[in-house]
Every structure is written in C-alpha cells, then in structure tokens.
Design brief:
6-stranded antiparallel β-sheet, about 25% helix, 15 helices, about 30% strand, disordered N terminus
C-alpha cells in the first residue's frame, strides 16, 4: 500500500510540475520517459528521486526538463565494468608517473582500454538506467546549469544546453565525478576575458584559450616522454595516443567550463585508409569550428584527406537511427549506434543522389549502403531505403569514389558501378571499356601527401663536404643537392675532381630538419658502398644511438638532422657519389618489388597483370580503358589506393 501511494504521489507531482512549467511535451514524450523508467528495473526509484527532487519548486522547472531529457535518452548509454578494468584503473592511480600529470591527461590513459573493450576479458556492459544514482544525476545537472552561466555559453538555448553542456558522458567510459575533478581548472579564464567585449562572450576564444593550455600541457608530457605499462594494454607512451583518446576527454574539459564542444567523426576517409574523429566548437554564429583537442587550434581540418559522411556524436537519441527502422534485417555494426547525427552538410556541398542497383538482394533487404574503399574492401558510411533497382542517398559530398551495396551474411555485397559526385551534383559512373585499350605508366601505388613530399624538398640545398678535420673547420664542397628526390632514392655526384679526405658530411642548410632513411657513399667503384663510422654535430649528438639505421636497408627507419651528419672513413678516401633516400612513405614503385595491377569489373577487382619492377616505375599495356584500377605491392606494405586515369595522369581516390 505504501509503495502504491508513493507511485501515485510521484506521478501526480510530476504531472502538475510539467503543466506548471508550460511543458511542450506531447504524449509520445511521456511515453519515452515511461519506457526509460521501465528499462531501469530495480534502479527506477533512483531516477524517480531525481524527478521528484526538481518537482518541488517552480524555480527548478527548467532543471526538471533537463532531468527528463537525460532520462528519456538514457537507454542505450552504458559503461563497461569488470575486475580487470578496476585493477587497471587502480594501477593508473598508483603510478607515480601518472600522478604527476594533470587530471585530463591522466584520464586519457584511464580511458585507453575502452577503445578496444572487446579485447578485455570479463568486461560487463551495464546500462546507465540500471545503475546511475539520483545523487550523481542531480549533482551533474546542478553543475551543468552553473556552467551555462559563463558568458561564452549565453548563446545556447535550452536544446543546445541539453546537448552540449548537460550530458554526464561522451562515449562508453565509466561514470565518474569528472566535473569535480576538473573543477577550478583554468579558473583564471573569466578574469582574463572580463572587460574585453570582443572576446568575453566568444565560445571560439574560450575554446582557443583552453585548448592552447591543453596543447602546452601535452607538450610537457611529451617532453618528459611519459609512458605507462600494464598487462591490459601493454606499454603505451604519450606519443602513441591520438584522436580516439584526445577527443572525448576534450569534450569533458570544455563541457565543465561551459564551452559547447562536440565530437565529430567519419567512418572512413575518402582518399586513404582509416577513420578519424575530432572536436568542433559551436559558435554564436551557428557555425562549428573543427579542431583536435590537445593537438590543433580551432580553425579547420586537414583537407589533404578527403571526407565523405560526417557524424556528430550526441547524447540525444536519433529518432531516425537505422536500427530502429529495421526488424530482422541485418545491418552493419556502425548503424546500430542511436546517438549519431548526420552533419555532412555543415562541412561540404552536398546533394541527394539516386543510384541504379544492378540486382535485387536475395533476402529482399529494404536498405542499400553507400560505401567507400578502405585500401582493401568497401566500408558502408551511409544508407538509403531501396526502391526496386534504385536507392536514394541523402547529403552526399563530392569528389569521393563510392559504390552502392547490400549487407548480406554479415558482409558487404557490391551492387553498383563505382561512381563519384561532381560539385554540381551530377554523377560520374566508372565502367571499363569492353573494346578500347590503353597503356599505363605508374610511379606510385598510393597518393603522395604533402608531409612526405616535404621530407624530400627539405633536403634541397644540403651540401656534401669533405675535410681532413673532424670538426670540418676547413672543407671542400663536393656538390649541392639542387632537386627534389620525390620520396625515392636519388644520387648526387661530386663536381670536378675531389681530393681524398678522411671525413665526409652532409650539411643541412634549411630551417626544417633534414630527414634521411638511407645513406650510401661510393668511390671510384660505383658498385661497392663505402662504410665508415657515423658521427654528428654537437646539435645532433643525441641521434647517435639510431645513426646506423641509415645503413640497415629498412627504408621506414629515419633520422631527423638539424645540422649535419658525418662519416669517418678511418683513412683518406676518394668519394665520387652519394646515394640517399629521404624519409619516405615507401609507396613509390620500388625496383625489385613485385606488383599486381587490378581493375574493377563485375563487382570485384580482377587481376590484369603482374610485374617485378626493374626501375622506379611500371609500364602495363593492353589495359581496358576508363577503368577503376588498383596497384598492389606483393613484396611489402599495406597502403594501396584505387585510381583512375584522367588525361594521361593518375588520379587517386
């Protein structure tokens, strides 16, 4: 009887409270709330305590709405718990190295196992609705409302507040009192901004200030070469961490300070393998400025790597999530996430497109998928409802090579020609000619990105010098590097007659460092390499332990030289040629390696031919024209990229 009276009283209080605060909630909303409470099981009383707590005073009407927002969207949010995770957390907390770090950097290590939680034995998934406490939720709501008072949060309406500042979690991390741990951090910011009208209310400036501090603190950690070992994760150092660890923690830091920052991601790059995530700060102009916490300023993304579908990770459930609109139909794991919003149109010009499908699926699936190549197979990044032999995809960006396909037997089955979307929204399909043939001359199997191109260009201007003195107080300049090696082996010859000297050096004469992977020196016999003892200028003396990587024929090793590197031959030696390899991505055609060329035909990559490279390029003849091609190095490497030929030039996709 007592429980019945409490139940009636609770809902009476809640009903009148909603009416009193001019609630805009419709019956479906009430249904969502009740559904969440039903899913909470034995924890229902904790959630009801929160609603009752904020139903007592008219002044708390907005906090009541906030509580309802959190609870109705709580199903599907969860954490992993287990003895191994507890022991790992305790080890981090006991570590003297970790205790020296600021909380937010230490938290990056705390959350590391959750990136690969499927590998953690004994990890149990527990839904928030089943375990979250009233005191935790109330404290979180009160702290979030305090953060909303910062001047750079004044542009947020209630819906924005609920999404950017109110949530108590970002991903599947354990529930913690992170707001308390971050309390007081960067507390000087309000004082620094006070009275400066142009920036005091700017979320961009607030984000810029905090992230600059975070970058500085990360720099100190990297300078100290912070590393942590635990059997659960192996040895991880601060240099091996990146966007999957930085981005969620950045959201927590910014959220604690009332700075509206989101987590964005792509499931697959358009022009390279891999996925990516980053942050974006929501400005009073309505624009989102992307950046990566702990790494880059809020300005923009690296557009060397093309994007396709961009998703924002939200706390609020997406009512259009695919998983809620399919019954028994199998769907890719990525689309089981109910908390993703498609925001592609905020990042690029988009078009709705309709694609022809070559066949209907065996199991009559309702949905087809928009897919991007990931160096080995096609990855679904978007979906559309099928209409017979056609499917429409919404908000598709330009300049990405796609196919449409079905998801059958837990695999993606291609079902269309490859195609890309032009800026004007027209579609270009790629279909190899049945009759026309062409020849291909290929120098690379993967696009050349500017950072690797720069490694070669930074060596231009370096001089090759010989001397009788180890300190090179007097030198003969044998030659100067004047051209771009283009990430490949290159040779430079002594100009004129050189006098035999004991010492030789390559002297860097630029600002950026000279990064070398391999080094060979030759005398009169240009077929036999001359080796000597390597040494460096005082500025580069710390490089000595890794110096002999230049002799090991492992082209992925490199050293970064700021001044010069020398060779002591032990006796006067005549040098005629220096052969060097700049730091490289090893994706150029390499003499001695065996390559296979494929083209995309009938929904598969079919072999056109195999060659062993004799030179830094390959020639293939009698190839079907107008195709989508793929060059694979059988000898080494995992990076290879689809390409087309346009006006005789390779265009990678």
């Amino acid at each position: 009887m007592r429980n019945t009276l409490f139940f009636i009283s609770f809902w009476a209080i809640l009903f009148f409270a909603l009416v009193a605060c001019h609630s805009h909630f419709s019956p479906p909303f009430a249904s969502l709330l009740e559904q969440a409470l039903k899913k909470s099981g034995n924890n229902r009383s904790e959630l009801e305590k929160v609603l009752v707590h904020y139903s007592q005073k008219d002044a708390d009407s907005l906090k009541l709405r906030a509580a309802i927002f959190l609870i109705e969207n709580m199903p599907g949010h969860y954490s992993y718990y287990g003895a191994s995770l507890d022991e790992y957390r305790d080890s981090v907390n006991r570590s003297a190295t970790m205790r020296k770090l600021p909380w937010h950097i230490r938290q990056i290590f705390h959350l590391y196992p959750y990136q690969s939680i499927h590998k953690v034995s004994g990890a149990r998934r527990i839904e928030d609705v089943e375990c979250i406490t009233a005191s935790y939720l109330i404290h979180n709501i009160d702290c979030a409302f305090e953060a909303w008072q910062y001047p750079w949060a004044h542009h947020l309406d209630f819906d924005d507040f609920c999404e950017y500042l109110l949530p108590y979690r970002v991903g599947n991390e354990p529930i913690t009192n992170w707001r308390d741990s971050l309390k007081g951090m960067y507390g000087d910011m309000p004082g620094r901004f006070a009275g400066i009208d142009e920036i005091n209310e700017s979320p961009y400036q607030a984000c810029l200030y905090v992230n600059s501090k975070m970058i500085e603190e990360m720099g100190f950690a990297r300078k100290d070469s912070v590393r942590f070992f635990h059997p659960l994760i192996g040895e991880k150092d601060i240099f091996s961490l990146g966007c999957p660890e930085f981005v969620p923690v950045t959201v927590l830091v910014m959220r604690s300070l009332g700075i509206p920052v989101s987590m964005e991601s792509i499931e697959q790059w358009s022009s390279r393998g891999g996925k990516h995530c980053w942050n974006a700060v929501y400005h009073f102009t309505g624009l989102h400025y992307p950046f990566t916490g702990f790494e880059s300023r809020p300005r923009g993304l690296n557009q060397d790597y093309k994007m396709n579908k961009v998703y924002r990770h939200t706390y609020q459930r997406n009512v259009r999530a695919l998983i809620d609109h399919t019954d028994d139909e199998s769907i890719p794991i990525f689309f089981e996430n109910r908390f993703l919003q498609d925001v592609t149109s905020e990042y690029m010009t988009c078009h709705d497109i309709t694609i022809s499908l070559d066949y209907e699926p065996d199991d009559n699936q309702e949905y087809a998928y928009l897919c991007v190549f990931n160096n080995s197979h096609w990855i679904p990044v978007h979906y559309g409802k099928r209409d017979g032999f056609k499917v429409t995809f919404t908000d598709v960006g330009p300049e990405t090579m796609f196919i449409a396909g079905y998801f059958q037997d837990d695999e993606l089955q291609p079902a269309s020609l490859p195609f890309h979307v032009r800026l004007d929204g027209t579609i270009q399909s790629i279909s190899p000619s049945k009759t026309e043939r062409t020849s291909l001359t290929l120098h690379r199997k993967y696009p050349l990105f500017h950072r690797f191109a720069n490694y070669s260009r930074h060596i231009i201007g370096a001089t090759i010098e010989s001397s009788d003195y180890k300190d090179f107080r007097k030198v003969d300049t044998l030659c100067t590097i004047t051209h771009d090696a283009n990430t490949q082996y290159d040779s430079i010859y002594a100009s004129g007659v050189s006098i035999p000297r004991r010492y030789l050096r390559i002297k860097h004469n630029g600002n950026a460092k000279m990064e070398l992977s391999e080094l060979e020196v030759y005398g009169a016999d240009t077929t036999t390499c001359l080796y000597g003892k390597l040494f460096f200028s005082p500025a580069d003396a710390h490089l000595l332990p890794q110096a002999y990587d230049l002799y090991n024929k492992s082209i992925n090793d490199y050293i970064a030289i700021s001044d010069w590197i020398g060779i002591d031959f032990g006796k006067n030696t005549h040098v005629t040629k220096v052969k060097y390899l700049p730091r490289t991505d090893s994706n150029h055609v390499m003499a001695g390696d065996t390559y296979e060329l494929f083209y995309y035909n009938d929904h598969t990559f079919q072999l056109l031919g195999e060659q062993k490279a004799r030179y830094p390029f390959l020639n293939f003849h009698n190839i079907p024209s107008n195709g989508l091609y793929l060059l694979i190095d059988k000898s080494r490497g995992k990076e290879h990229r689809i390409f087309t030929m346009e006006e005789g030039r390779v265009r990678f996709w």
